[in-house]
Amino acid sequence: MTVQCETFSFEVHAEDGMARAGEVETAHGRFQTPIFMPVGTKGTVKAMTPEDLTDQIGAQIILGNTYHLYLRPGLDIIRKHGGLHEFMNWDGPILTDSGGYQVFSLEDLRKIKEDGVEFQDHIEGSYHFFTPEKVIEIQEVLGSDIMMAFDECPALPCSDEYMRESLARTTRWETRCLEARTRTDCALFGILQGGTSPEFRRAHIEELCELPFDGFAIGGLSVGEAKDKMYETVELSTPLMPHDKPKYLMGVGKPDDLVECIARGVDMFDCVIPTRNARNGQCFTSQGVVKIRNAVYAEDMRPLDPNCECYTCQNYTRSYLRHLYKAQEILSARLCTLHNLHYFLELTRTARQAIVEGRFEAFRKEYYARKEHA
């Protein structure tokens, strides 16, 4: 008998083609879908305060990472604070990745066993062992509103034989995650694997979606495969996933990816691109990407994006932003991050409104037309 989450629900409000608009309820509040979730890997969305996230960009849910928070600051410190929400002073919903991707990316520092994965801390060198049970225990200490099951994300390409073994192991591990959870206020999502193979994807979806998860995530994409393969895999996957549960595409992506995958039925997204690229001076706008470090912007008196209402665009010129970046001022990261996150969240908000109004395809065409005529 597995524990069921009593504080989680999902409702689809509108559909337009495969695109859909919905609402998720969690122990720490609601969020509307489609949604982009800013990534706060180590208990902070880089360069942002919680007030920035709520007041300036309207973030409804953010991410934390099990692997990184387990290593630093460690569970004892987070327990003393009463959980991750209190630790980072964020009172909205939090989704935590299981750490599976981080562990499996440490190819030279880990060993896969039936019980779990032994790995070496990539900074201090100490050894640790993650089992499905341990991953759930960590996330319950964090107090995640949405926990992710522990899976294997196989490196691509791999042999068919290895993929079969990996998928079977992932199903066993994720079943153990369901059996391990004890809290009724932490939802648990399953992760679907299978690479870009239609055969393996169908098989794993059919197998895993029989289990009583609160939602499902498409994993194992945006790891170097061709863009058309990613879109084809998403388009194959979403109709096979339960209609009454959220559909989450992990680690994706760029603005075009959000638009295209919303069109293919995805409800939830996360990616480090808006925050990481902001620190590197790359800003996303309705007219395309602005590389603010370039000399062409030295005397450019325009805002980053004339169609944007964020704090950065309403108060600062491209010229000033370039100056901050070239001078390596901390304010550069803050202002560019604020803009990028605002842009991503506004993109999903306007997509949602278009779905509700039954004009998503028109929205999609307008999105590309703006970039073409920039």
TrEMBL record:
Q: Where does Zn(2+) bind?
A: C308, C310, C313, H339
InterPro entries (alphabetical): ArchSynthase1/Queuine_TRR (IPR050076), TGT (IPR004803), TGT-like_sf (IPR036511), tRNA_ribo_trans-like (IPR002616)
Q: Does the keyword tRNA processing apply?
A: yes
Q: Do you know which CDD domains this protein is assigned to?
A: Aldolase_Class_I
What are its GO cellular component terms?
cytosol
* Annotated stretches, region: RNA binding: 251-257, 275-279
Q: Do the record's keywords include Thylakoid?
A: no
Active-site residues, as the UniProt record annotates them: D97, D270
Which Gene3D superfamilies does its entry note? Answer: Queuine tRNA-ribosyltransferase-like
Q: Which Pfam families match?
A: TGT
tRNA-guanine(15) transglycosylase-like domain location is 17-371
User: Which residues hold substrate?
Assistant: D97, S98, G99, G100, Y101, D151, Q193, G220
Q: Which cofactor does it need?
A: Zn(2+)
Recite the UniProt keywords alphabetically.
Glycosyltransferase, Metal-binding, Queuosine biosynthesis, Transferase, tRNA processing, Zinc
Question: What is the UniProt remark on how the cofactor binds and its stoichiometry?
Answer: Binds 1 zinc ion per subunit.
GO function terms (MF aspect): metal ion binding; tRNA-guanosine(34) queuine transglycosylase activity
* Catalysed transformations (reactions): 7-aminomethyl-7-carbaguanine + guanosine(34) in tRNA = 7-aminomethyl-7-carbaguanosine(34) in tRNA + guanine
Q: Which GO terms describe its biological process?
A: tRNA queuosine(34) biosynthetic process
Give the metabolic or biological pathway.
Answer: tRNA modification; tRNA-queuosine biosynthesis
Its Enzyme Commission number?
A: 2.4.2.29
Subunit comment: Homodimer. Within each dimer, one monomer is responsible for RNA recognition and catalysis, while the other monomer binds to the replacement base PreQ1.
Q: Which family does it belong to?
A: Belongs to the queuine tRNA-ribosyltransferase family.
Q: What does this protein do?
A: Catalyzes the base-exchange of a guanine (G) residue with the queuine precursor 7-aminomethyl-7-deazaguanine (PreQ1) at position 34 (anticodon wobble position) in tRNAs with GU(N) anticodons (tRNA-Asp, -Asn, -His and -Tyr). Catalysis occurs through a double-displacement mechanism. The nucleophile active site attacks the C1' of nucleotide 34 to detach the guanine base from the RNA, forming a covalent enzyme-RNA intermediate. The proton acceptor active site deprotonates the incoming PreQ1, allowing a nucleophilic attack on the C1' of the ribose to form the product.
Entries under HAMAP family matching the protein: Q_tRNA_Tgt
Protein name as annotated: Queuine tRNA-ribosyltransferase
Query: Which organism was this protein described from?
Result: Persicimonas caeni
Taxonomic lineage of the native organism: Bacteria, Deltaproteobacteria, Bradymonadales, Bradymonadaceae, Persicimonas
Give the gene name.
tgt
